[in-house]
Amino acid sequence: MISRGQYENYVSILRSELVPAMGCTEPIAIAYASAKAREVLGGDIKHIHVSCSGNIIKNVKGVIVPNSGGQKGIEAAAVLGAVGGNPSRELEVIADVTPEARAETKRLVHEKLCDVSLAEDVPNLYIEVTAEGLEHKSLVRIENFHTNITLIKLDDRIISEKAPEKVSVNSGVEPSADKNMMTLKGIIDFADGLEVSDVEEIFERQIDYNVRISQEGLDNKWGACIGKTMIETWGDDVRTCACARAAAGSDARMSGCPLPVIINSGSGNQGITVTLPVVEYAERWRISRQKLYRALAVSNLVSVYIKHYIGSLSAFCGAVSAASGAGAAITYMAGGDYASVGRTITNTLANVGGIVCDGAKPSCAAKIASSVHAAILAHHMSMNDDQFRGGEGFVEDDVERTIKNMGYIGKVGMKETDREILNVMIDKVDVDSCL
Length: 435
Fold this sequence. Notes:
Elements: H1 4-17, E1 20-22, H2 25-41, E2 47-52, H3 54-60, H4 74-84, H5 99-110, E3 114-118, E4 126-132, E5 137-143, E6 149-154, E7 157-161, H6 184-192, H7 196-219, H8 226-234, H9 238-254, E8 260-262, H10 268-285, H11 289-310, H12 318-333, H13 338-352, H14 364-383, H15 399-413, H16 415-425, H17 431-434
Parallel strand pairs: 2-3
Antiparallel strand pairs: 1-8, 2-4, 4-5, 5-6, 6-7
């Protein structure tokens, strides 16, 4: 059993994490900062400068900005936010842009209204937008999570300033949420004792949004069509559909589909991954709605728990932590206890924990499919009482220690990997001369 305070903390985490966003969250965060900078400036913009961390550059370079008419990149995101964004809508900042704003964005990007620089020695998630007008200039800074504005300036006057939160992933909606209190045992106890009324609205919205974009990815040609290809070639058994439906949502999202999703750990792809496989299995197994909510609590919170140790952006692919959550939830729906769920998580991390993040782009859908496939294998291993054992690589007998080991590898061990991935992506290294 968990205390009332612990219970309410888990509810707060769900409320803060499971929020709507349109498009890949990194370009949306840039659009949000730019829209806010334009609002503060209050007049015509003559130039925009975006200074951001390497991880932001990595995650924006290859993804289509939604509602942009197919435009890619930091410049397009910043200009679209300034021209047509509504900062009051935060991660849905460009949901209502007009065709005129899209056309104006294309023209202004072509005319080099915006330039970009790499910010050094800053948090992994860092965006600073400076908007210059005829007489004034504004500055908006975002740090650590996608809506966390830490500084607003007009000329040299500080409008708003706050210390950056040390928490690496949180939407800021529920400042009382404390992820340091999380444990896998606590998550299972929370799910077992869940009051459905506390989460029904949250999870129904997550199901509605994420199923809708998944269906869009299956119905139409988006990205590399990973989801469609899987179902068309591998059939429609529950394992294939669980992988394919998650991949299809990413197919659409990474290629500019304007449908919003409910995110997890600051990521739409992770939000899709923790949702679709669980919903698919629940439908095939005819799981009650109440049990589905409990399973979604497991899926979402396990993903948040693992990612909490790694941080919002790194060289560790977030599809792995999200798929670990989905696999844990499938085991939970199958009647698995704490030990069974722990085996599923361990088996997933030991298998695909090494998938690297080289930015947001269409191939994210394939990484999601691979990660969910590994999680389903991990589930079946666990139900047969099979698992990778302590002492094998970074795996330990205690699943909590295994999760922390993976967190250390993702946050500390892969830091140099993250830097070199960025160098390759922005052509700062001559790969041929290094081999």
